[in-house]
Amino acid sequence: MAGPNGTEAPAARWKRHIVRQLRQRDRTQKALFLELVPAYNRLLEKAELLAQFSDKLQPEPNDVTPTTHQGPWEESRSNSDQVPSPATLRMKWQEEKAGLRLVCGEMAYQVVEKSAALDALESELEERQSRLVALEARVVQLQETRAQQVQQVDARRARNVAQRAAYEALRLQSRLQEAALRRLEEEARDLLERLVQRKARAAAERNLRNERRERAKQVLMSQELEKAAKRTVSISESTDILGDEIREKAEMTLTLPAEPEFLESEAGEKWKRPFRSASATSLTLSRCVVMVKGLLNFKKRRGHSIGGVPEQRYQSIPVCVSARLPTLVQDVLDAHLSEVNAVCFGPNSSLLATGGADRLIHLWNVVGGRLEANQTLEGAGGSITSVDFDPSGSQVLAATYNQAAQLWKVGEAQSKETLSGHTDKVTAAKFKLTRHQAVTGSRDRTVKEWDLGRAYCSRTINVFSYCNDVVCGDHIIISGHNDQKIRFWDSRGPRCTQVIPVQGRVTSLNLSHDQLHLLSCSRDNTLKVIDLRVSNIRQVFSADGFKCGSDGTKAVFSPDRSYALAGSWDGALYIWDVDTGKLESSLRGPHCAAVNAAAWCHSGSHVVSVDQARKIVLWH
Question: Please, what are the domains in the chain?
Answer without folding.
Answer: 8-53+92-207 (no CATH), 231-301 (no CATH), 329-619 (2.130.10.10)
